Amino acid sequence: MKYVVILGDGMADYPNEALGGKTPLEVANKPNIDKLCEYGEIGLVKTVPDNLKPGSDVANLSMMGYAPDKYYSGRSPLEALSMGIDLKDTDIAIRCNLVTLSDEADYSEKTMVDYSAGEISTEEAKELIDCVQKNLSNERMSFYAGVSYRHCLVVHDAKLGTDFTPPHDISDKCIKQYLPKGLYGEIMKELMIKSYALLKDHPINKKRIAEGKNPANSIWLWGEGTRPALTAFEEKYGLKGSVISAVDLIKGIGIGAKMNVIEVQGATGTYHTNFQGKAESAIKALKDGYDYVYIHMEAPDECGHQGDLKHKILSIELIDSVVVKYIVQQLDAMGEDYKILIAPDHPTPICLKTHTRDAIPFVLYSSKDRKPSGVSTYNEKTAKASGNYYENGELLNKKFLKE
After folding, report:
1. Residue 17: exposed, middle, or buried by beta-carbon count in 10 A (0-12, 13-18, 19+)?
2. Selection from 394, 72, 86 nearest residue 253 by Cα
3. 17-68: per-residue pLDDT in tens?
4. Closest CA to 351 of 17, 113, 47
5. Is residue 143 within 8 Å of 136, Cβ to Cβ?
6. Angle (deg, nearest 10), helices 248-256 and 75-82
7. Model confidence at 402, in pLDDT bands (50, 70, 90)?
8. Is residue 152 exposed (0-12), middle (13-18) or buried (19+ Cβ within 10 Å)?
9. Which of 134, 148, 199, 295 is the most buried (most CB within 10 A)?
10. Of the residues 191, 225, 259, which one is the last residue of a structural domain?
11. What's 171's DSSP letter?
């Protein structure tokens, strides 16, 4: 038996007036997912416990079968694993976004214009983070460059207890009430203020402004955590697993779970990503002896955060027409029994531009157990109407990973 998870990050949504009260999943053309729905199991699963925030870290751990209330130790440490940072038990890792803030003289009066600084390129971002590291680091604090706008700050001999806000939660809002508070709040705020003075006139940003792009004129710190300790996936489920993603967070979960992390050329985390390359890499892994592949695609989530309805629908359609279609065709040709689980990790509603903790719709298809479901299409409404509900991702995975 082979197992494939096709995870469309943030794919679920709320009814949208521009779509006549429908959701992107309802209007997207996705015949391949709908066909699996006709002969599979559809339902809802709660991926985010009530005591945790609905982040992609928590929700993807859940969808990978790791109970977040047992395994979650913070977002940034998972990303740090992917970046090759060796965290000590006394270190804390903090996500460091490059963002675009408005130009008010008082830092606290600025607005969060763009949490991704126009999806800045990794090459440009590295130069900016190297500048931050050179000017703002010290014996206790070091900055590490990651992918695009996503980077990391490591603080040595530190404790948890600072109150941070994710920048994608405050798009178009004044940042004043969302600046860091608590244990290291003033220190973190000071770093952010100094970074603006450092970056606003940097040659990279002058060039970006001249090209009509958003400048990466500040760092934004959030997502603190300590070194994670995940049970190896093979030990937990008895399966050799692989992970495919463009983002450090998901790669970090894979590394922490001692899974095979596959790099795909052209994987970006946006709707411009190499969907075909991800699908082909997944099939290759299965042919190479791996039992399980987790294919993570960030595009619907990014579009949700940006309020980009058109490209969120397009992202869903590309996942269907490029990834799902190819995976099913290749698995059928391999002649071995297989299961496919298709779902988002959490909703990222266009109207809110951030995550919610609502239960998410899933489709679970088994080539070994094809039965008419009586449901012809996959979306939030049909999943809810099924009456099929799992209280957490671990329960769903126990069903999915059982032959």
Report:
1. exposed
2. 72
3. 999 999 999 999 999 999 999 999 999 999 999 999 999 999 999 999 999 9
4. 17
5. yes
6. 80
7. confident
8. buried
9. 295
10. 225
11. T
Cβ burial 348-373 (10 Å sphere, 16+ → b, else e): bbbebbbbbbbbbbbbbbbbeeeeeb
Residue 80 lies in a domain: no
| 313/303 Cα distance (integer angstroms) | 9
Domain that includes residue 107, residue range: 92-225
Given a cut of 70, whether residue 298 has pLDDT beyond it is yes
Q: Does residue 315 sit in the same domain as residue 395?
A: yes
CA distance 244 to 273: 12
**Residue with tokens 């729905």, as numbered in its chain:** 37
pTM: 0.86
Which of these three, 155, 190, 225, is where a domain ends? Answer: 225
Cβ proximity of 339 and 41 under 8 Å: no
Residue whose C-alpha is closest to residue 320's, from 252, 395, 243, 377: 377
Classify strands 241-244 and 260-262 as parallel, antiparallel or unpaired. parallel
164 and 49 assigned to the same domain: no
- Are 97 and 145 within 8 A, CB to CB? no
Q: Rounded to the nearest 10 degrees, how much is the dihedral formed by the CA atoms of 35, 39, 43, 49?
A: -90
- Sign of the CA dihedral running 201, 202, 203, 207: negative
Cβ–Cβ under 8 Å, residues 359 and 44:
yes
Cβ burial 331-342 (10 Å sphere, 16+ → b, else e): beeeeeebbbbb
pLDDT in tens, 237-253: 999 999 999 998 999 99
pLDDT in tens, 317-375: 999 999 999 999 999 999 999 999 999 999 999 999 999 999 999 999 999 999 899 99
